Every structure is written in C-alpha cells, then in structure tokens.
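Q: What does the predicted 3D structure of Phosphodiester glycosidase family protein look like?
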Amino acid sequence: MITTIKRINRFFLLATGPMLGLLIALSLSGTNIDWSNEANVITPKADIIQTTAAVSKGLDQAKSNAKTTMTSIRKTAELYHKTTTTMSSIVTKSQTAAGRPEYIYNRRISSKLGTPYESIHSDRIRIELYKLNPGTYHGYAMKVKLKEPNAMKMALGKDSVGGAETTKRVVDRYGAVAGINAGGFADSRGKRYPLSTTVVNGKYVNGFQPSFKDLFFVGISKTGKLIGGQFDRKEDLDRLQPLYGASFVPILLHNGQKAPIPLKWQVSPLRAPRTVIGNYRDDQLLILVVDGRDENGSSGATLTELQNKLFAMGVQNAYNLDGGGSSSLIVGDTVVNNPSDGALRPVPTHFLFFK
C-alpha cells in the first residue's frame, strides 16, 4: 500500500512538475495572470477573426476600386481614340484645304499649256512636258516642280572652266532625268568660257562680275528657288544665296511685268531657236525651248512673242538663255527639240534635273 502511494506521488510530481516550474518562472518574472477573465484565452482567435474580416473588407473595396478604375480607363481610352480619330480627320481636312489653293492654281496654269504628253514623277521632282504650236513657231514647254532643292543643279562642260559638252552628254554623265542649255559663252584659244558671273556649288567660278549692258544672272538658290536679275554688288546677289547660276541676255519678265527688251535683241536675230526659263508664283519652273532652222532670223520665235506668251501664262519672272544652235532640251534618253545645227552644240553650262 505504501509502495503504491509512493508511486502515485512520484507520477503526480512528474506530471505536474513542468507546470509548477512554469508557474514559478512566471511568478518570478512579474507577469500577472488574470485567471478570472476568460477573454484572455480566446483573444488570439478573436484578433484573427477581426483581422480576416478587415482584410476581406479591404479586398472587396480594392476589387470595387479596381472595377471603377478599369471602367474609367476604358472610358478614357474610348475618348482618346475618338479624339485621335477626330484630330486625324481635322488634320487631313486641314491639309486638303491648305493644298487646295495650290491645286487650283496649278490647274489654272496647266490649262493654258494643254495636256502633257509626257510626265515624270518622284519624291524629288515633277516634270510635265507639253508641245507648243501657236502657229508662228513650234516648240516645247517643260513645267517643273522641285520638291527638293537638290533636284536641280548646274554643271560645267567637262566639269572645268573652258570645257564644253553637249547637254545630252552631261545629262548622261550625271544621271539626270532632264537637262537644258544654260548661259552664254565666249570662245578663246580653242576653249569655251561661260559669260560673266557663273556659280557652281555656291562658288563663283570666275569671281563676281557686276552686271553690265543687258547681261543678267539667273540660277537656283540654296532653298531651291529661281533667282535672277542684274546685280551691281556681290552682296546683293549673296543675299539670295545662289547655289548655281549663269549669265545671258535679256530679262523678259520681272515680278509679273514685261521688262523692256533692248532693240538690239529684238531684231538680232528677229527669229531664232530659243531657250527661256521662268517661274510661277508657287515657284514652279516653266522652260520653253523653241525650234528653228538656223540663226539667220527666218524661223523660230521672236523674244517679244515669247514674252507675250509667258506673260499670258502667268509667269512671274523669265530669262532668255542662250539660243540658236545652243538650244537643247533633253528628257530621259531623248533629244526632244530639233537642234538647228543638225546636232547638239557643245556648250559650257547646263541646267540639270534629277529624279
């Protein structure tokens, strides 16, 4: 019996020992335990439930906010799309409206030329070729729209001062799509030199020479505009930023008005093959090349006839280039005009057009 009680006590001590040790440790640490408050036992569970409820509520709110945000984004995207579509439509209509006056003007000037029998179009240039036959002479008109300044250049014969080549040869050598003869020249010691002020690649070939007698300078500026006139000072021409240009006689139109043609050039020769270059208000170029049998004044056009023709077609500025046997019009691989010499004449300067 005593042995049994001892065993029970030992078992009780083993079972309760850890609990008693824990209570003693808590007591020594100063921790107070309120055994009467049952809430202390279930607090952790209540916190979890409360936190879970708060998280669930937050998630519901976030979901609701997300739906609202997505709806707002969708509406904003739809509005942006509509606005973009509307703006694109406005831009297209504005561009069409802006280009309409140019279109109308081009139709008006083109109607005076007739229907082009050949056209060349690219991102750099537009060329339209017409036939001229008013009854007293026969020739060709080439209307040129330079879309880029570098679509037109001027080259020297054999790329040297004093050199001379046919326009066809220079067109082929440069890979141009069209070309015409340019300024006048003077022969000396077997070479052919351009007259007066001549500009190639923005440089004065023979230096600047003040205009004298009836000579003028005509060329293309760095911005691709036709420039020309008589210049007493280099500074006046420099302000126009010449990139290419040559000289000859006389001026036919200036700012839409007929320029006086000196009597000498009205009758010497009276009629002849001619090459004339001019521009419209929209900066399109018009080039006339007139055929003739020779330079004796029995065929071709008079300068007065060409002046009247250009004025009637609305050309603003026009300049008579070298004519007679020098007149040359090349388009592609074709010599369009009929050279009065029976073959193209080698000349020192050539205006070239590039596709």
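A (community wiki): The structure tokens above were generated from the sequence. The two ends are 127 Å apart (CA to CA). The chain has a mean pLDDT of 86.
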